[in-house]
Amino acid sequence: MTIERGPELFAKIGEAKLRAVVTDFYSRVFGDVMIGFMFEGKNRQHLIDREYEFTASFLGGDVKYTGRPMRTAHAKTPIFGGHFERRLQILRETLRDNAVDPDVQRVWIDHTLALRPQITADKGSECKDTSVVAPEATPADPEARIKLGRRNG
């Protein structure tokens, strides 16, 4: 299902709630034990303002993004797949905890995922299912003799 971006979508969150969500998100990111160090020395309010503009813009709000392009803005910071995934997890939790409309959540997360190649320093850093399925074990034969190993020596 495709969700239309535009004033109707932006109205589902509105200016005040979007600002509150972005502020909460950056509070969590700055304090995070895994990625908070990446924000040391950064101007929190500046980041909140740019993130608000950026998000409002792609959600369909009548707001102009005044920041730099994503690739340029993140070029001096080596952001790897794990960092990106952690930020994404914090975003998901923030959206959930702030009861953001499901349509807004979907568009926001999808848009964030689409930006991965412009932000991460390692290509192909998407987390994939790498689970290994163990082969079925052969049942033990209760009648078989057990061989004990001996060391030669």
Helix-strand pattern, N to C? HHHHHHH
Give the end-to-end Cα distance, rounded to a whole number of Å.
Answer: 71 Å
The number of E-state strands comes to 0
Radius of gyration: 23 Å
User: Domains counted in the coordinates: how many?
Assistant: 1
- Main sheet makeup: none
Structural class: mainly alpha
CATH superfamily: Globins
Keywords for this entry:
153 residues, mainly alpha, Globin-like
What is the strand and helix layout of this fold?
Blueprint: H1 7-11, H2 14-31, H3 44-59, H4 70-74, H5 81-97, H6 102-114, H7 116-119
Helix pairs in contact: 2-3, 2-5, 5-6
Description of the structure:
By secondary structure, the protein is mainly α. It has helices at residues 7-11, 14-31, 44-59, 70-74, 81-97, 102-114, 116-119. Helix 5 (81-97) packs antiparallel against helix 6 (102-114). The longest helix is centred in the N-terminal third of the chain and has 18 residues, at 14-31. The model has no long low-confidence stretch (mean pLDDT 86).
